[in-house]
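anyone seen this seq b4? input:
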Amino acid sequence: MHNEEDKNIVGHEIEKERAVEKISEEKKKEFEKIKHKLETFKKQLLKKFQFISAIGLLPPQASKLIEEEEEVPEKETKENPIHVMLIIPEDKSKELGKLKIEAIKLVQNIKPKIWIHVKAIPQIWEICFDGKYEYIDAISMSFPLYDTGILGALRVASVHKTLVLKKFERYVVSYVIAGSIVRGTATKTSDVDVYVVIDDCDVKRMSRFELKEKLRAIIYSYVSDASEIAGVKNKLSPQVYILTEFWEAVKDAHPVIFTFIRDGVPLYDRGAFMPWKLLLKMGKIKPSPEAIDMFMSLGERVNEAVKRKLTEIATEDIYWGVITPSQAVLMLYGIAPPTPRETVELMEKIFVKKEKLLEQRYINILKKIVDIYKNYEHERVKTISGKEIDELLKETSAYMKRLKELMGQIEIRMKEKTVLQLHDEIFKLLEKILGKGSEQKLIERFEKELIKKGKMPPRTLETLKEISKIRKQKKIRLAKHELAVLRKDAFLLTSLLIDYTQRRELLKLNKIKIKYRKDNKIIEAEAFPLESKLIVITPEDIKKITPESVSKVSKAELEKELLKKEGSRLNMKLIKQLEKIFPEFEIEF
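predicted toks r here
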C-alpha cells in the first residue's frame, strides 16, 4: 500500500501524464483533417517495408528538443512540422536510407509538413548511451500509428522510471531496461525487464536488508500505476538492487549481473552504469578466485541436488498426488474427509470389498506409494533412482486414470441413491397426509385434494410426477445440473408437505369442543382458535368469530382459513363474542 506521500506523488504523475495525453488528443484532432492521408501513408509504407517495427508521431511539446537533436534547418522549424519517427530492426539497417527516401516521397504533399526520422533499434539505444534521456522520453511518449510492441514497452518503462525518480531521485543510481525490448523482439504483451539500482551508502537508520525490502515494495507498487498511465498490456518486471549489493555482484562477476551490464540500456544513469559497461567491454571486470570457486562448487553440487529433487518428487509430490484425489473419491461416496493414514484402508474396504468397484491391483499401487513416502519420512530410504521414479510415474498415471473412472461409477450410484431417497421421503409424507395407496393413486389424490384446492403450488405436481417417472427407470440418466434441479424442486415439495402436515397436526392439538343448549337440547360444536379469530363448526353452519364481528363461511373458506395461519390461544374478547351467540355454553379442551 502507498502511504499518503506516495499517493500524492503517483497522483501528481498521473495528472502529468494525462496532461501529455490531453496535448496528444489536441494534436490528434489536428491530425483528423489529414487522417486518411496518414493512414494511406502508413499502409503504403508497410506494404513495401513490412519489417518496420513502429511508426510514431512524436509529441508536439518535444518538437524543439527533437529539432535541435536532429539538426532540422531553422527555415523548416518555422513551419511547425509534425515529426514522425520510423523504427526498424537492427538487421534491416541497410534499408534505412531507402526507407527514408520512400517515406519522404509519400508525405511531401501532406499539409501541415511532415518531417520523417528513421532509426534502427540500436540507434535508439545509442541515444540512451549518450545520456539524452529527455529525447528517449519523447520517443516513448509518441502517438503510435503502428507498433509491433517496442513503443508500448518503452512507454511503460519510461512512465515507471518517472514515478521512481520522483520518489527517490537523489538515491537512484541507474534505471536500466533489458531483455526483449533491447533485442528488438518485444511484442504488445511482452514482459518488460527493468533494473533499478539505489544508492544505500548514507543509510544509517535501518539495515540494508530492510532498506531493500522497503524500496522493492514501493517500486513494485508503481508497476500497476505505470501500466494504467501508459495504456499498454506489457507487464513490467522490475529487479531492485542496492548499490553495495550490486557492486559485490559485479566484483564477483555474477553471471546475471554480467548479462545485465552487457545487454542493458540506461533510461537514467548518474554516471555509474556506463562506466561499468565500458569496463566490462574492456575486460577490466573479472571474477575473483573466490567467485570462481563458488560457481564451480555450485556445479559440483548439481548431481546431489538433482538426486534430492528426484527423491522429493517420488515421495512428497507423487504421494500427495494420489492421496488427495483418493480422499476426494471417498468424500464423493459420502465419507467425511479421512486422514492420509486412513485413506488406503478405506479405499480397499469400501471400493474393493464392499462395493466391488475397484480392482485390488490399484490398491497395491496406492500402498506402494504410501510405503515409499513413510520410509523416506522415517529416513529408511535416502535416495530413489530415476528408473524407479519412471516406474512410479507410470503406475501413478494408471491409478489416476482408474480413479477418474471410479468417480464416474460412484456418481451413477449416488444419483440412484439420491433419487431413491427423494422418492421414498416424499411418498411416505403423502401416505401420512392422504392415506395408503398405490403410487399412481397417491399422485391422483395429491392433485385432487391438494393442488386443485389450492393447498399446494401447481408446479409441485410436475415435480412429483418427474420423481415417480425417474424412479421407475432402470438406469438414471441425469446430468449433474439436472440432478441439482431435481433435488432443489424435491426439497421444496418436501418442505411444503412437512409444513402442511405440521399445520394440520397443530390444528388437531388446538381443537376445542363447545357444548351449548338449543331448543332444550345439548348440541356439540368444534372450534379452532386461530390468530385473532375463532372458527366454530356447528351442525347448522360454520362461523368465523372475531372480537368485532361474526360471519358465516363456506367449507372451502374454512379449509383456506385453517391452513393459512398457525393455531393460537382462546382470548377473553373471543369468549365474550361466544356468550352473545351461545348464551349457555361450556368449553372442553
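The radius of gyration is 42 Å. The chain has 23 helices and 14 strands. kinda curious what u guys think
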